[in-house]
Design a protein that fits this description.
It is built from 13 helices and 19 strands. By secondary structure, it is an alpha+beta fold. It comes from Alistipes hominis. This is Thiol oxidoreductase.
Length: about 475
Amino acid sequence: MSAFIQKHSVYVTALLCVVTFSACKDGDFYEIRDEYGNVADSRTLSAGISTVYQSGVTAYDTPAGWVTGNLNTRFYRGDALYDNPRVSGDDPTQGGKGPLYAGSSCGSCHSNAGRTYPTLYSEGGTGSGGFSSHLIYITKKNGGFFRNYGRVLHDQAITGVEPEGKLSVSYTEETYAFPDGEKYSLITPSYSVSAWYADSIAPQDLIVDVRIPLRHVGMGQMMALDPIELEELARRSNYPEYGISGRLNYITERGRQYIGVSGNKAQHADLTIELGFSSDLGVTNDRYPLEVAEGQSQMLGYSHYGIQISTQDMEHVDFYLHALGVPARRNVDDPVVQQGEKAFYRARCDLCHVPTLHTRQDAPALINGTRLPWLANQTIHPYSDFLLHDMGPDLDSHYTSGLAQGCEWRTTPLWGIGLQQRVNQHTYFLHDGRARNLKEAIMWHGGEGAVSRELFARMSRDDRDALIKFLESL
């Protein structure tokens, strides 16, 4: 803990969460009070002192209780930079959008710090309202890039510039039945790209990997994960009787090797603030000073505005994401939820969706060097091992990221997952939103996830429904 906390007693209220700190001889003590002012039930503490008792539309977008004073100012500065739309031109505070981009702001794709309703469903692919709530990765079949395109296909552009292409998606649906006769269906997406700005690429030469936004829940805790614990998880994540063997994705950035934890394939070692501004919004910065369309013929008449966001402002956004509270678990005494928790373990979901992890002892740092001691030494419940697992051929994107093969995906953290409907008014899950609800998400599990899928399928309908209720309580 910081010297400030060691020397002072602090009583903090963050919307519906109260955190009390006090100094004691043998170390720091804290307690969290729930929305009724009672000492919080430890079973509900998703993220230690960053747990918030909020279950409405702002459940993902509430500051942790330790965010006070100047930190509060920084949080809301970062929140504004995250949410407020960027515009084209040289406005030093909100300019720089484009010439190619995916959204007008971070919040356009991550509404309320969650997952904006996918334009894959609302508009059949590329959005018409100035943003597309997805990223489109493209490569050659041999893994190389196309001459006139980068790794991301930008399907939005400012006036006078052509988008690189437009995405369309169609779905085929198949109906299945559980052993007890209950029916369910799965939809499989098929992607196509048209209106290429330059070379038209034949479908047979193209790999398209589409991702809808991730929920920005527990970002700070993820950045503070204990690397020793993760390495130990990777060493013992070997269950041959279940066909499970997870591994870490190691990332080399700026000449150093890191453990990858963020992104669908754990392909990043940080929250990619600079990359997000550059690639997603088209806003240049010190780390990415060139426009994403640099070198394209249509850039000849485009005015360059130089660096369009400062590192300090990007750190405000980085702080905002680190300082977001994690929603508390709900309905822990509900008998159906408790029945579902037992079913969760019987289905061996916990072997990958590990309930309890810890943050490291040293304070994690933001992109401009600010350290956050409040994230250190915490017991957290992300329900993830943050390892890569082979999820089978049906979920194979054929797109590699670092060490991750196309069929390998990082275990998705489940905390806050039951609030997505309230926050974003939809229940589309998995990397491309193909699962329309949690039951479908489970039934898409193949490869190392097949054992849980089969155990879930063979349960009684009551137990399957209870397991879903348990997930909705997280």
